Amino acid sequence: VTNYVNVKVIVAKALALCAMSKVSHGVLTELLSPDGAHFHIQSLGNYLADDENLPLDLSFAEATAYVSRASKQVLVGWSQGSGVDRAWIMNPKDKLASRTWCSKDRLVVIKDA
Questions:
Q1: Three-state SS sequence of 27-57
Q2: Angle at Cα 80 formed by Cα 76 and Cα 84, nearest 5°?
Q3: pTM of the shown model
């Protein structure tokens, strides 16, 4: 079995994180509570002005700027590829590296409920 989530490990890591930092408790409460923030999959087009077109190349830093200027949301990841070859890249290491962007690519954002 390659596609599973070990919930016990997640709970243990969350408890350890809260024990190490009081700030972490607030962040986890916001993300995990029913009334807190939620993850959403969005199109970059939702964040562009009416007179703007989708860019052909985009860095994570640029995508973050688009999301930040248009809403009170936080960009945390994006998709790459499509169909069965789609991969979800969360918090890419090189945020300044440009990549090709197409209309089927998506953003992962955290936004208030």
A1: HHHHHHCCCCCEEEEECHHHHCCCCCCCCCE
A2: 120
A3: 0.75
User: Can you tell me the distance from the alpha carbon of 76 to that of 110, in angstroms, rounded to the nearest whole number?
Assistant: 7
Tokens of 64: 């973050």
For residues 103 and 56, give the distance between their C-alpha atoms in angstroms, rounded to a whole number.
9
Task: Record the tokens describing residue 20, joined without a space.
Answer: 């190490």
- pLDDT (0 to 100) of residue 113: 67
- Amino acid, res. 32: L
- 109, 31 in Cβ contact below 8 A? no
Q: Which two tokens stand for residue 69?
A: 């200027």
Residue 69 phi/psi, 5-degree rounding, is -75, -25
